[in-house]
């Protein structure tokens, strides 16, 4: 996973605020620390833009004309596209900040905020997104491997993961013990699992994703 | 009820007439007592003058009036052509007793009136604090935007300069933005200062179009937040009026806030819209604020201007009362009517000035 994170593409920060000067200054501030930013005047404009395949984090003004920041956060959490959000607001609204944080926001900053607070929050958001992406990539890979197993192999894998010895599996499926052992080796290869515990972990991940 | 009227001349005239009447009454009773031989029987009428004095004087004035009346009763009792001083004495005592009772009642009335006045002043203060609170919140929001931009730009500038080699061009762009944004913040403060109380009311020539735009600028954040739109129908040639700019701002701010609140129950699909128009009709400038909100009960078109009448859960019903008295003090009128297809429209007129702003 760490290797995957290191290999991931250059990160991008999406700035969504209806105030021109805030967008420009934040874009420049991010640029000064070597972070690329894309700016949008509304949540709708951002939603309509194509998403890039790179780690990302969103800086979002909680109160904007049109769709409010909180509405959008709810909508994004419901869909697949859940990017970490750092909320910024000109109103020190405690009730709103609690709602935003409960819904999984990284940070809730009141304007005007310290630049370091914003940058720290963004780094945290990007780190989280890199992890999310790595986990997602891992899951995609596992699914592909699992998809490559035939019906019988999937059956055997379930038994192996449940901890049944080869002899029992053979009896249960009406096959010879040798066949089971050969098939087990093939399963380990196809799943790229180095050991039985590794295979069990994979099965758990796959099951969790299905659930 | 409401604010004291600015045009005091008829009131002053009324006041003088009352004092004259009071003096005549006191003099009449005194002459009657002194010149007739009824043993100061008329002195009981002094109580009437004391009760009448309530409408003219405060507590001290009423007391002084009562003392004068008592003194005059005694004087009459001495000067009268009475044969039986005993009867005059009894009459005098009865009169003084009646006078004391009347004075006591009069002082109670004065105290109750003073309490009512205090309560009203308290309500006035509350209203000011309420609208000041709302104004402060909207101004805090307005100022926070440029302040945030300044802070972020300043930090960005420092970081660009700290790079090796320093990025002068990027730093320069940030300094430029800081200057612009500081100016924007300054403008907001300037507007606030002009709106703040403390300035004595002073009438100047106002360009109504500009005043409307300025008031709209102050409530813009609130409108944006509610997703309501504000439309203008302003004439190319701006009407000019002679008025107190702060008070006119107060009226516009109040009407725009009311219009926005009237749309509170709106569904997201049906957008709330407020139209602000201004036109010159004959020698008057007429400003109309029309909304598509909940509107008013049909019998409420006059009641809305009464003090303490409100449709809002949290309102205290002083906003339009104050607005109307401001407009009337400027020699104008204010009225409210149903809007088509729904909502309410508030109109106020001000005498147009022939001079230019």
Question: Can you describe this structure?
Answer:
The complex is a heterodimer of chains A (211) and B (357). With 211 residues, chain A is an alpha/beta fold. Chain A folds into 2 domains: 2-134, 3-Layer(aba) Sandwich (Rossmann fold), CATH 3.40.50.2300; 148-210, Winged helix-like DNA-binding domain superfamily/Winged helix DNA-binding domain (Arc Repressor Mutant, subunit A), CATH 1.10.10. Helix content of chain A is 59%, strand content 12%. In chain A, strand 3 (56-61), helix 4 (69-78) and strand 4 form a beta-alpha-beta unit. The radius of gyration of chain A is 23 Å and the shape is elongated. Chain B is of the alpha+beta class and 357 residues long. Chain B has 3 domains: 9-125, no CATH class; 127-195, Helix Hairpins, CATH 1.10.287; 204-351, 2-Layer Sandwich (Heat Shock Protein 90), CATH 3.30.565.10. Helix content of chain B is 59%, strand content 12%. Chain B is built from 8 helices and 7 strands. Chain B has helices spanning 9-35, 46-53, 59-79, 85-162, 168-195, 208-226, 245-261, 319-329; strands spanning 204-207, 229-233, 240-243, 273-281, 284-291, 333-338, 344-351. In chain B, helix 1 (9-35) packs antiparallel against helix 2, helix 4 packs antiparallel against helix 5 and helix 7 (245-261) packs antiparallel against helix 8 (319-329). The two termini of chain B are 35 Å apart. Residues 1-8 of chain B have low confidence and may be disordered. Chain A binds chain B through residues 18-19, 21-22, 24-26, 28-29, 31-33, 63-66, 88, 90-91, 111-115, 118, and chain B through 137, 140-141, 144-153, 155-157, 159-160, 163, 170, 173-174, 177, 180-181, 184, 224-225, 227.
